[in-house]
Amino acid sequence: MHAVRLIAILALALGLIAPAAAQPASPTMLLTVFLRHDQSKTVDEINAHLDKTGFRKNFPPEGVEILSYNIVMGIGHVITLRLPADKLRAVNLAIERGAWGGFRSEFYPTYDYLQIYQNQRAEALKK
User: Fold this and answer.
1) What's the total number of domains in the chain?
2) pTM value?
3) What is the per-residue DSSP string for 2-69?
4) Would you say 50 and 98 are in contact if contact means Cβ atoms under 8 Å apart?
5) Are 53 and 98 spatial neighbours (Cβ–Cβ below 8 Å)?
6) Is residue 84 part of a domain?
7) What's phi and psi for 31, nearest 5 deg?
8) Is the dihedral of CA 95, 85, 107, 67 positive or negative?
9) Which pLDDT tens digits describe the chain residue by residue (127 residues)?
10) Is residue 22 assigned to a domain?
11) Residue 33: which CATH number?
């Protein structure tokens, strides 16, 4: 029995097996959210709605990172988030509870293409 325990301790020390508590990092995803202005309301009315619902206090949910937040004239707010997949429902609920009534929402799974494009462009310029 001591031999098995000694082998397990050596394997852990050498990094040959991972301890049971070690978990791989949760995979994340990118999500772009369009909050399209309700154009029947003024900006002041929309902001009052966001204040009333607590949207700015509750968005983004804990564990969700805002990568970019832009206003696109004629559209509204365009927000790119990084989140673990298990936070997708929390994001949806935060939008439903806070932004609906001032905005119409749209969600788009997203991925970062910049480095790929830059590499393809560099190759094209060589030709």
Assistant:
1) 1
2) 0.73
3) HHHHHHHHHHHHTTSS--TT--PPPPEEEEEEEEEE-TTS-HHHHHHHHHHHTHHHHSSPTT-EEEEE
4) yes
5) yes
6) yes
7) -140, 125
8) positive
9) 444 443 443 333 334 344 444 445 569 999 999 999 999 999 999 999 999 999 999 999 999 999 999 999 999 999 999 999 999 999 999 999 999 999 999 999 999 899 999 999 999 999 9
10) no
11) 3.30.70.920
Answer yes or no: is 4 within a domain: no
Residue 6 inside a domain? The answer is no
Using an 8 Å Cβ cutoff, are 13 and 57 in contact? no
Among 115, 118, 117, 106, smallest CA distance to 31 is for 106
**Which tokens is 115 given?**
């480095």
What the block records as the tokens of 79 is 């927000």
Q: Which domain covers residue 33, as residue numbers? A: 28-126
Tokens of 93: 């609920």
**Of 74, 80, 70, residue with least CA distance to 114:** 80
